[in-house]
Each structure stands twice: as C-alpha cells, then as structure tokens.
Amino acid sequence: MNIKRPVKIEYKGYTVEFTHELDRLDRSEYWFGKVMFIKDLICIIVESPSAMQLEVISAIDEYIEDCKELGVEPNKPEVPT
After folding, report:
1. Given 3-state DSSP classes, what are the helix, strand and coil percentages for the chain, each rounded to the nearest 5?
2. What's the domain range around 48?
3. Of 6, 14, 73, 77, which sees the most CB atoms within 10 A?
4. DSSP H helical segments within 1-81, as ranges?
C-alpha cells in the first residue's frame, strides 16, 4: 500500500492542506485540498501534486476577488494556538 502524506501549501497567509484520495468506484487517484482555519469553504481537487501550486494561487485569488465583488471581507485564517 502506497500511503502519501498530506501536502501543505501557503499563499497570501492562507494554508491549503491536500490529502491523497482514491475514488472507490473507478479506483482513480486524486488530491483533495481544503483551505484551513477559515469559516468559508474553499476546496481544490487536482490529479497530481504538480498542479497544486497553480490551483492554490487561482483559488485564493478568486476567493479574494469574489469577496471584493460582493462587498464582504474575506475570512482571515485563525490558526489555533
């Protein structure tokens, strides 16, 4: 069994943690990422680790832009101590 460790990527003060997943129906592999320590839900799915950084940048920038367009403040990460 090939267990892959979670991968964390930080961008603009946000941390995204990716976990390796296996689809039980078709046995395909993918990485599921979630922005940590905020109340809003931002998820990212990529097929390989090489796509993670670009998708994190895109998702965070899009989140910040969407908040600006809606006239709301983006959640700031609240890291537990």
Report:
1. 25, 30, 40
2. 7-70
3. 14
4. 52-70
